[in-house]
Amino acid sequence: MSISIDQSKCIGCGKCHDVCPGTLIKINENKKAFIKYPKDCWGCTSCIKECPVHAIHFFLGEDIGGKGSKVHTEKVNGLVRWIVEFPDGSVKTIDIDPKESNKY
Amino acid sequence: MKIERLKTDLLIIGGGTAGCYAAITATSDNTAPNAAGNKSADLKILIVEKANIKRSGCLAAGVNALNAYITEGRTPKDYVEYAKKDADGIVREDLLYSISEKFNEVTAHLEKLGLVILKDKDGKYVTRGNRNIKINGENIKPILAKAVKELPNVTVLNHVNIFDFSVHGNKIDGAFGFGIENDTFYAIEAGAVIIATGGAAGLYRPNNPGFSRHKMWYPPFNTGAGYAMGIRHGAEMTTFEMRFIALRCKDTIAPTGTLAQGVGAKQVNSLGEIYETKYGISTSERVYGTVTENLEGRGPCYLRTEGISAEQEESLLKAYLNMAPSQTIRWLENETPSKANVEIEGTEPYIVGGHTASGYWVDTKRATTIQGLYAAGDVAGGAPQKYVTGALAEGEIAAKSAVEYIKAKVDRHAPLQGSRNAPGINPGQALDAEVPLNISDSNIASHVAEIEKFFQNKKSDFTTEQLEETMQIVMDTYAGGIKTGYRYSENQLKLAKKEIEEIEKLTNKLGAADLQEVMYIYELKERLTVCRSVIAHLAARHETRWHSFAENLDYPEKDNINFRKYVNSRLENGEIKIILRELTAEGQRNYEHQH
Lengths: 104, 595
Description:
Chain A has 104 residues and is mostly beta strands. Chain A has helices at residues 15-19, 46-50, and strands at 2-5, 25-27, 33-35, 56-59, 70-76, 79-85, 91-96. In chain B, strand 19 and strand 20 (575-582) form a beta hairpin.
């Protein structure tokens, strides 16, 4: 699992860089964030949680069953909306209420 | 490289769960002034963290339960007995009692700091089993970091990697580090040091060594730095042979508990037989069962989820999105759990004192065998099953002991240096002004030269990554990795030792382009140091007490006559010396080092 950063959305705030527990994310000359060491990502999703503009998504490596889908989250009316974009263009969303997130 | 000298009373290395809580509790204990009338709130505290304390360490991703809690009707003794049984006796009862008695107190403190603990309609914590309570812990680390930030006397240095202690005459007086992004070398002098750097991942070849090599159970950024620095300075270590291996969902390394407890999924082999009760229920026996079914040709093994209802499936997808999202994505991209059972596998072995008993040999106060150095969390040995609350409890115990040590030092100096007795003198300042520098300019120069050498090694034959992979293959093949079903023999361990030592020599020829790459070289060196200790410990325990965790093919049986003992070690003249020590007595509450 690793992440990639959509530079057209990135506002260069640097929050993802600050929190990555592996210090794997850097800021380029154009003040855009990028992951310098994609193979070293633990998959903790800290950066995704910090990004104020939902510019970061994660994906599964092919070696662990990944098929090319991209995942990101957005906050909608107090819910966490998980958005999965499949390679064929279809999209699945799952909403989770943070207050109810641990009832399962 | 800029060179910066810093001075502090208490240095905390590693701002994870234990390190942050050490800072929080060291300063909150300011009600009891010392003999000179000074409070510990006067002490200057410095946390040095190689990432950023907001999301660093084991809890970067959050956690959805506190697995060590004394639930209603249970006692700390019950917890000690559970941990002792799971480790088949090789635990320090004094250490386990000291954390068990604090589990609920530190939990209440966390709730006060803002952690959401789930409650039932009567306002009682929602439990899961006898020892666990459920939390919404996604933000547990930001909560701790915020509490640290509000403390006036605590400074945090983020993105600074500590790579060596300063020790003189077996007494620690500081540490050396470098900023991985600011081109600065740090020489830090301290009155006392708490080491809280976590355990060691990445010693063994991981489940998925390709692109997803870091999709592992334990944080890949925990490289055993604390163990390695202590080992090199002659600290006594304990039980490195009790490795930890987690049983997880294949590929994603997601937890299995929610499948087992949430939808009652049983462990089955490829013949559909339920095998989970056949091998015993301790943590190591659960791993061993799955390994054995595979070795005997009845693999792969699964958690049986086929046929669960649509409603159950929906709840599983959500539960995993919340705690291990890669598992949900894997289901959505492949087959969902109602259609296909979930394959399970053991991870590569880790050395981690929060789950097994590996780590620094400490007394009840968490003092290591190096004077002035205290250990807390995964780096501290003897107390397995400590989890989050145990790490917090150890942070607090270590902090109070370190503060006591600093105060005693100041008090002892006072009569010799009359001005200290004058009212209004801050012992911290006095310490700064009058104690001579412990770290000399030549100490600094030699450490800086060591770093700069890596910048000069332009034409290295190997990369750090290649040597890391070689180390992992050696450990996998000859020191009981996944490849051999976690089994090893004395002859294999001899080869492992030889090859690890050869890789160690090659690390001095590695080159680096920046300080982040220098950090990777030091992390590799740390892992190699830990590997040597693991190999020596595995070779020293002539028995098989814990299946899979330490499966010695030359000694396949348990030996209660000779090995109801701690296997400890110390580096002496470059060689690891093994020391067998007697177990603590039943119910023993206190233990002091006998040097």
